[in-house]
Amino acid sequence: MGGARLLPWSRRGQPGSQSAAGRAVVMATPSVRAAHALVDGDLTPLPQPQGSRASREGLGSRAPRDPRRGPIPWAPGMNRKKLQKLTDTLTKNCKHFNKFEVNCLIRLFYNLVGGVERQGLIIGLDRNAFRNILHVTFGMTDDMIMDRVFRAFDKDNDGCVNVSEWVHGLSLFLRGSLEEKMKYCFEVFDLNGDGFISKEEMFHMLKNSLLKQPTEEDPDEGIKDLVEITLKKMDHDHDGKLSFADYELAVRKETLLLEAFGPCLPDPKVLM
Amino acid sequence: MGLALAKLAQWTAAGHGAGTLEITPLNEAILKEIITFVESFIYKYPQEAKFVFVEPLEWNTSLAPSEFESGYVVSETTVKSEEVDKNGQPLLFLSVPQIKIRSFGQLSRLLFIAKTAKLKEAQACVEANRDPIVKILGSDYNTMKEDSIALNILDKITRDDDPEREIKKKIAMLLKQLDRHLLNHSLKHISLEISLNPMTVKKDIELLKRFSGKGDQTVLESIEYTSDYEFSNGCRAPPWRQIHGEMCYVLVKPHDGETLCVTCSAGGVFLNGGKTDDEEDINYERKGSIYKDLVTFLREKSPQFLENMSKQGISFNEEQQKEKDPLSEAPKKDEAAAFHKDISGSDKRSLEKNQINFGRNQMTKRLEPSLNWKTTVNYKQSKGSVKEIQEDKHTGKLEKTRLSVSLGRAQLRRKSAEKIEEIISDSSSESEEDEEPPDHRQEANADLPSEYWQIQKLVKYLKGGNQTATVIALCSMRDFNLAQETCQLAIRDVGGLEVLINLLETDEVKCKIGSLKILKEISHNPQIRRNIVDLGGLPIMVNILDSPHKSLKCLAAETIANVAKFTRARRVVRQYGGITKLVALLDCAHDSTEPAQLSLYEARDVEVARCGALALWSCSKSHANKEAMRKAGGFPLLAQLLKTPHENMLIPVVGTLQECASEENYRAAIKAGRIIESLVKNLSSQNEQLQEHCAMAIYQCAEDEETRDLVRLHGGLKPLASLLNKTDNKERLAAVTGAIWKCSISKENVTKFREYKAIETLVGLLTDQPEEVLVNVVGALGECCQELENRVIIRKCGGIQPLVNLLVGINQALLVNVTKVVGACAVEPESMMIIDRLDGVRLLWSLLKNPHPDVKASAAWALCPCIENAKDAGEMVRSFVGGLELIVNLLKSDNKEVLASVCAAITNIAKDRENLAVITDHGVVPLLSKLANTNNNKLRHHLAEAISRCCMWGRNRVAFGEHKAVAPLVRYLKSSDTNVHRATAQALYQLSEDADNCITMHENGAVKLLLDMVGSPDQDLQEAAAGCISNIRRLALATEKARYT
């Protein structure tokens, strides 16, 4: 099929003009490499025998890792004890990662942030930095969705993702069960947080999803129609909006609908 | 007013009988053009307007003399113009109602006078003066040929010495201009009135041209247009014929007939009167019935065309499909309308037509499995809008003519269809489903189902949406009933297939998954399969097989499994390395590393392997693919998968093995690889499909003796025998009986089967079963019958009657098997009595007329024991009228098996002296003698026996010698086969009763060879050899005695 592609978006890597990519790529290079290491590295395979590997390898970065991935550097300004303690706490609350993995994630986090908390000073990834990670590491392109993902990560709503939110979020991103992911995605899509995805919200999320046809009189016509199609497909109780129950039913029937209104989970192709 | 006028006038006159012009918009337009021309003539060409016509134009006018004013001498009933010619004759003379005019000037003036009646006058003038040019310019121009008319006129005029020649020339030119103008003008009208579609015809002809030429393989010897000139609208017929809807004329020379001159018209294709003597013109009259298109026409006219078409078949259809799709609107409309008529038909005539059309449609249905689409459309159409009624009228004419061809044609069609079927059934399993069904594209204006529009909208979003919108559209599309042909074709017709396939080339995993899920469903439709291959979908799917995403691999493999149901697709899969990749999917050895919880879009390795096996199953129907699979190391993996307990995995695996078992390599591997054990085990599975494929695989492999023993050793015979009792699933029954047939080639297996009472069950299956089952059942009985004990069982279970009944069938394989069983049973006198009573011998005898040599041979073999064991065999044989002649003539066959069997039968027949006399009269001696030069030991054996039998009559011994049968027989003694030796020695003994034969034998060194035979342990051989030697010796003694005394 040597011919021209029919589809406007057939290759990734040309995010829309409003995407975060353009703005943040340069400043992110070192941390990006680390994040890549995270994604295609130790975290994707199956849960290792709990603990054993971590203890064997200690906290140093002598783990037998793939040479093409750089080691995750030591967290700047962090002492061994503190890290150990933080790792233990977070591992307790995390069901998908083992100790070693949590440890890596924590170090990665502080590398990305560029320092550890001093007394009373809260430190974390702000919106822009986080969006940059989402874009570069997880292949997300949609600005609005990335904002929503940030808010879903930022549980305490303080404008930045702290280390605990980071580990939690990534646990869902990389290892989350379907149930967890459904819950998370619904939260992302429910823009006003009222427990329903309304037509307006759908419209808002889908409004950039169609190529504008110059011939069409009303450019929003197609989007409205798309919203109707989606409702027809997913709104089982016919109340004109999606409840979580509607959404869950639809996703269980067709997993592809999990990210129905925009990619808010890591792109499967970057996970490979 | 030249050519165009003449032709148009002619046309309407033909329609009405009287010489009047019909009031049609076209005629009116032409008349108006003429009027404008004449009216302006006087101003534009004042000089020429004065030119006096050679003869006046005369007609009956409706104008009253009173209407003429200045410039005319008006009386009560006459009008004369003041303008006169050289001789003082008025140029216009009206004597009510007749008017004569002799110049354009007067004509112009008259039209001014006529005012509102212009049209009427012009019409009357044209009607009355059919050859205006002749009248105007003189009869010199009468004989002009259409094409060269202007040239001739100019020629004549320039040679003319007439002082008026300048003017005449000018007028001639003007008239010519008018003529051309009229022709072109009428063209516009014609194209308004009649919707010709010359493009379709053109494509057809060009396509046929490509497949024409010398040689046996082409469909036609030649095909060409009668005219090289193509009008602007694409037609080649002259405009006055275009008005009839005719587009062009074609000369077609088929391989097996005269050149046909064919008219292609909007209404269809028909034979016209051919070229007339003067070469240029065509007799346009329709001589034959109207056909839908050129190809249909030729199919009817030329059997050779039909045959070669089916040979060229695939490629031609393919091209035609491609070429025709966008262009075939016109004929399709006809068909649709015809359909519509069928449905709404109320009068008897259309009912009758209904039947014919029904037959037709069934014929086409065989080749195009999907008329559903169309019928649904027509159903909707029958709601009946005004537009359709019009359409109906439009095709009404055509329908009438179609009716006239009626039954004769239908029969022809049936015959030709049978022929095609034969070709198809002859080829191997490869060609299964290989005829390419022609496409149905939806008509643009038809009343479409609502799904169509919804799908169209979704495809729009697929094209113009980003990933999110695409996924939504894909998911929504899956809500349609994709198993329904309407939806499948709708997706294709709105351009959805291209987008779906294009999506596969992106790297969006979700979109690829969604697209494959749809492709997987719609590729159940054979047409869609072909479209997918045409659009280059297969290589992309093959590439996806390398994807790291297992669910993608699965879906791609499943889709390939669906698409690769025809040869071309299977070839593409192989060429793009698909077989190797599919084989790689089978490898799910790393089971242990399977994650406990599957990630979002993933699948299990076992599932991947299952899908791979499914795809390989489809692909393994091609020989080359089996080979590729073996080279890719597919067999060990299949063998490994065979040990899994999952039924849904076992079915494709066993299915693949069963397909592959047709290859010697695989059979050997199956024997060596403990596969039979697994197959036998799965025979006892609960899944019917699995049982079927296992039995089928055993059937394929059990040609080999070792394999048969393996089946027995692994206890496979018992489950097979017990499956015989389950007759509900015919496919399984066919497979099981097949396996039993092949297994019972081994004697030990037969004993086992007898133990399991399988023979009784088999006899019970001789009635009410489909042919595939019967062939196997009878085949199995044929093997069992080799033992006396089993023959008795068959007789006791009442098996003879149904077996004899099967002798009247037509299935070749079945007949071969049945004759074998009947022959085997006939060995036993009691069974023979039953066969005789049921007239089985007569049935066997008539099978000698069967066209298949295998059947002939088998029947002849079966006749031998019948004749041997029947009471009063001689009388029985004589009672078959023409039977002896028939069997003697079979000696002219060139099939060795037939010859051997017939010789054996003749040996038996010749035991009766009277019959021997009859076959001698039918020339059995020369025929047998002619066969003598053969190397085939079987034939030699039976031939020698037949010769020795036939020597018993009259001077046949001498005759064999005369026909030079003796010398070759002597050479038989050098053969390595003792049967041949014995038969030959006996024959030579008989022949040696004649002195001349003895000499020939002696010359050919028979004595030495016979001397060796005397030492043989075979008593008959000893005796015959000795007898022969003694005859030769006696002759020698007699000669010596004669010499010395």
Structure description:
Chain A is an all-alpha fold. Chain A has 2 domains: about 20-175, Recoverin, domain 1 (Orthogonal Bundle), CATH 1.10.238.10; about 180-270, Recoverin, domain 1 (Orthogonal Bundle). Helices cover about 50% and strands about 5% of the residues of chain A. Chain A contains 13 helices and 4 strands. A two-stranded antiparallel ribbon of chain A has the order 1-2. The model of chain A is unreliable at about 1-5, about 10-35 and about 40-70 (pLDDT under 50). In chain B, about 45% of the residues are buried. Chain B is flat. Residues about 10-20, about 140-150, about 320-435 and about 590-600 of chain B have low confidence and may be disordered. The chains are: A mainly alpha (about 270), B mainly alpha (about 1050). The interface of A and B includes residues 5 and 11 of A.
List key phrases describing it.
heterodimer; A: mainly alpha; Recoverin, domain 1; 2 domains; two-stranded antiparallel sheet; disordered N terminus; B: 1045 residues; mainly alpha; five-stranded antiparallel β-sheet; 57 helices; Calaxin (chain A); Recoverin (chain A)
